[in-house]
Amino acid sequence: MSDPSDEALLAAHLRGDRQAFAVLVSRHERRVYGVCLRLLGTREDAEDATQEAFLAALRHAASFRRSAAFSTWLYRIAVNAATDQARRRARSRSVPLLDEGPQQLTPAMGDTGEEVANTIAVQAALARVPLEFRVALVLCDLYQLPTAQAAEILEIPVGTVKSRAFRGRLALAELLAEEEPERAKAKAEAQQRPKARRTARAPVAGPAGAAGTGTFATTSESTEPERHQPEQE
Q: Domain 1-104 classified CATH 1.10.1740.10?
């Protein structure tokens, strides 16, 4: 027996099934959180926007129309929630605080340090792309949604989506190019940094009669007491 569709689960929720909406959340929470994180750049803001998106979907479940897929309807709500969160954040702080989280642009296990650095650089630059371009870029390039679906989510013409995504790519490329000299300099300095060398001092035996102990040599003189020859008469 196949799992019920999103639309069937939403209909069941509206009929009073208390578990149906929880199933929808479990299906889409990870992806909705990922969209919010890429748009907002911080885990805290993404969690807030994700929670607000699902609460809004719950409140407005009866307004869903089958003319669009449930996922399109839900992502529209998520993008709106993230956009509202970004505008509130802009009023309180001017520079986003980037946070590495499970839904960030995280490299796969086994990637090199350079790839990790590049991933972090892309995330930092993405957070500086103007919001309306960033939204189109995330939907079309990162999530690889069809342009028509992105247009449905954003409720704008397909041509506008293409234009915003293109301008987002240009902005991202310019930001990465600005940061490239600094990244190259940091990489070169890290490669030239000499490795710390450990030096060890050989232990020597302690004075006669002090068996079982050892000391580190600090001078080249013997530790034995000086012996004097008896004077001859």
A: yes
Q: Assign 104 to helix, strand or coil.
A: coil
Burial class (CB in 10 A: 0-12, 13-18, 19+), 11: middle
> Other CB atoms closer than 10 Å to residue 76's CB: what's the count?
17
Q: pTM to 2 decimals?
A: 0.68
Residue 109: what are its φ and ψ, rounded to 5°? -60, 135
| CA 66/CA 69 separation, integer angstroms | 7
Extended beta strands in the chain, E state: 203-205, 214-216
Q: What is the pLDDT of residues 214-224, one digit of tens each?
A: 433 444 444 44
What topology does CATH give the domain 113-190? Arc Repressor Mutant, subunit A (1.10.10)
Domain with CATH 1.10.1740.10 in the chain: 1-104
Judge residue 155's burial from the number of C-beta atoms within 10 Å of its C-beta, 0-12 exposed, 13-18 middle, 19 or more buried: exposed
Q: Residue 47 and residue 29: Cα distance in Å, rounded?
A: 10
